[in-house]
Amino acid sequence: MAESFGRLLRSLRHAAQLTIEELSHTSGVSVRAIGDMERGASRGPQRRTVEALAEALRLDDARRVALSEAARAGRPRQEAPAPGACELPRGVGDFTGRTRELRALRELAARAGDEQAAVVAAVSGAAGIGKTALAVRAAGQLDDLFPDGRFYLDLRGMDPIPLDPGTALSRLLKALGVAERRIPADEEDRAGRYRALLRERRCLIILDNAAHEGQVRSLLPSAGPVMTLVTSRRPLAGLEGVHQLPLAHLAAEEAAALLGAIVGPERAAADPDGVAQVASLCGNLPLALRIAGNRLQSRPGWTAGQLAARLGDEGRRVESLSAGDLSVAAAFALSYRQLSLPARQSFRRLALAAAPEFGAPMTAVLAELGRAEAEDALEELVDLGLLQSPYVGRYRFHDLVRLFARARLSEEEPVQAQRQARRRMDDWLLEVATIAGRWFEPDYGAPPQDWSSLVELNSSQQAQEWLQTEGEAWLAALRQAFRVGEHARVVEVAEAMHWFSDLWMHWGHWPEVFDLSSRAARAMGDRAQEAAHLNYLSWAQTYCQARFDEAEATALRALELAREIGDVRQQGWSLIYATWSLWARDDQPSKESGLRYTRQAAECFQQAGDTEGYAQAMSSMGNCLRRLGRVEESVRHNLALVERLRDPAFGGSPAIVNQAVGATLDLVGDGYSALGRWQEAADHYRQALWEMSERPISRAVATTLTSLGKALVQLEQVEQAREAFREAMELYEASGDAVRAARVLELLEQVARSAAVTRPQNAG
Question: Looking at residue 80, what DSSP letter applies?
Fold first, then answer.
């Protein structure tokens, strides 16, 4: 009987007075495998397993022979497998990392036989990421769980003609011991025979380098204590009941450790910075690290730093990463050849994208596709590991893949076609940036009804999201426009950003934007535009860079230009921007200069009939009075200004006037705070927040919330103070202002500490 091995093993174990766990410990055979044998789930274990059990049970010769005979009887009748059929390839002794993935595979392997369906895991990832190495490493570590064998088959998925399922089944059946003459001619019959065999065996099957789901589906067992591990560059998402295990690139520490393991600890320790630099230039890609390590091994006189210097040339880096028959470029080329024509063209031309991330609209512009076609091409590139998709709708290159794409573009497309694609992208980016920026300009708002593009800008929220998401891209296009002398366009785009820049103050690139636009205006000989954009630059130097002396000098240069051309309105704005640059200084001359500048600005705006500028000047004047210590005068001035601004007869853009009202009410709150009149301060901060809500500027709102929180602390309204501080901190964090967010967090912690100290006293 086939079950006789299990019964015999159990009786021998009982005679030896061993538990299954004790026998497992002594023999090295897993508890699960022994249990399967005794239950009859595994009827004919391999010879080495039987020998290990006999040794652990200390059997005499007669009982050892009996156990071996029982095992032999339990195995299906078959001829000897073909020599070397489906043998595991050689593993690498310096395998590094992938601890999480190996743990996950062991957990899955331990479940083989417990589940109704056979266990199948699919390891997917880009070319050279280490899928095969992981599978072979896992097979080595799972030897104890699969006593009936571990088998490997390369499906040659990247070949022009991958291995067909019928041939694959034939090879696997031979490896499992089926004589060639007994292998069914029909592919479906082969699959049935294969599944029937694996229902009785605890095996590990590795199907490496799968082309697609159709190639693999008939090779997957339906049930039994078997585990199948499939690797593919594609995610094989169409397979049912499969545990997906996508591979990411190695972490920087793991990459350096792998390179160090390849070259040896002494050599790695001699130049750790060089090793880290080489790993970084290899993009933490295991294949590239293997090649770099092999090159260093074959050149004993080189240091890692010297190899890093050679890899520093982007134009030659991918081609330099080759050693013998290993090549990064060749690995990428295999995936590239699998692409459809639209995906190939998209891949090449996306090398022109200046920003690290991009979406379907930009791809459509570059590759001259519809948006839906561009999305399909991008997903195809992701499936083959040539692009990464960090989140929905956004895509990016691995550094080495980007260089490969650049090489394909250079070799396969004429220079003129490349220039035209770049020009289309830049024109599109600057057009959309202008339309999106104008959403926030009082004189524009929503796009013209006849405007259409590949993106939706139906709300200011959509416009803001696009400008922030594509910030690096449209900035690169703006730089290019300046380089080629498109000065009017540079000024137009920067002008569209004037109001939006307040909402994204901490982007970090506004000084460059307005420096380019002021220089472009100068190149055009347009002194009025130059003065205006120098003023914008002064704002950016004050609020984005805290370069206050430089900001004042820039505003005064704009003032000089405005005076030369007799532009009284721009003179007023220059004086306002100069005033703002002075507010960071605490010396008396700066405070007096600020008050003088604001008075002159108010006169200029009155002369020019600019009510909006006049409101800014008068509000700034109230702040200057408070900074000079004339607090009560400042409060009276600002309260009178609020009444005047709220008078319908004042005129001006409602949005701009409301903003001025909010800013002035905030200054009233500051004045009352300075006077210790905390309730009045809190009331006016709340009024300021209400006025600001129509067009909220994150930093301004956060500043007012912080001031409100401080006033509420003085009023012992602790919970309301906490809420104000929390809202302020969230706004600072959302706008990227970590410094101010940290300051507000400190205020929150102070409130918490004070509450903890006073609580016991109140309780008493």
Answer: P
How large is the average pLDDT for residues 502-510? 89
Number of C-beta neighbours around residue 472 at 10 A: 15
Q: Residue 277: which pLDDT band, with cuts at 50, 70 and 90?
A: very high
CA 86 to chain centre: 39
User: Taking all residues of the chain, what is their mean pLDDT, rounded to a whole number?
Assistant: 90
- Tokens (6 digits) for 220: 């997957």
Q: 131-157 b/e with 16+ CB inside 10 Å = b?
A: bbbbbbbbbeebebbbbbbbbbbbbbb
Burial of 592 (0-12, 13-18, 19+ CB in 10 A): middle
Between residues 557 and 308, the one the model is more confident about: 557
How far apart are the C-alpha atoms of 712 and 751, rounded to whole Å?
11
Residues 432-486: tens digit of each pLDDT: 999 999 999 888 888 988 888 899 999 999 999 999 999 999 999 999 999 999 9
- Diameter of the chain by CA atoms? 118
DSSP string, 335-366: HHHTS-HHHHHHHHHGGG--SSEE-HHHHHHH
- C-alpha 373/C-alpha 454 separation (Å) is 12
Dist CA 191 CA 184 (whole Å): 9
- Please say whether the beta carbons of 245 and 131 come within 8 A: no
* Strand duo 394-396 + 388-391: pairing: antiparallel
The answer to whether 58 and 28 are in contact (CB under 8 A) is no
**Of 106, 88, 91, nearest in space to 245 by CA:** 106
Q: In Å, what is the CA distance from 132 to each residue of 207, 216, 518?
A: 10, 16, 56
Find the length of the chain.
764
DSSP class of residue 92 equals: -
Distance CA 235, CA 125 (A): 7
DSSP secondary structure letter of residue 40: T
- Structure confidence at residue 84 as a pLDDT band (50, 70, 90): low
Whether 761 has a pLDDT exceeding 50, the answer reads no
| 673 neighbors 703 (Cβ within 8 angstroms) | no
Burial environment of residue 251 by CB neighbours within 10 A (0 to 12, 13 to 18, 19 or more): exposed
Output DSSP code: residue 386: S
Helix then strand then coil, % of the chain, to nearest 5: 65, 5, 30
Query: Any bridge partners for residue 244, and if so which?
Result: 122
Radius of gyration of the chain (CA): 36
Output phi, psi for 182, to 5 deg.
-100, 0
Question: pTM of the full predicted structure?
Answer: 0.79
Question: How many Å apart are CA 667 and CA 624, to the nearest integer?
Answer: 10
Q: Nearest to residue 220, comparing CAs of 228, 208, 212?
A: 228
Phi/psi at 29 (nearest 5 deg)?
Answer: -90, 135
Containing H/E element for 133? helix 131-141
Asked if residue 403 lies in contact with residue 285, where contact means CB atoms within 8 angstroms, the answer is no
HEC profile for 175-216? HCCCCHHHCCCCHHHHHHHHHHHHCCCCCEEEEEEECCHHHH
Q: Which residue has the tokens 């880290």?
A: 276
Give the list of residues 6+ apart from residue 481 with CB closer than 8 angstroms, or none: 426, 430, 489, 490, 493
- pLDDT at residue 368 greater than cutoff 60: yes
**CA proximity to 742, closest of 751, 729, 753:** 729
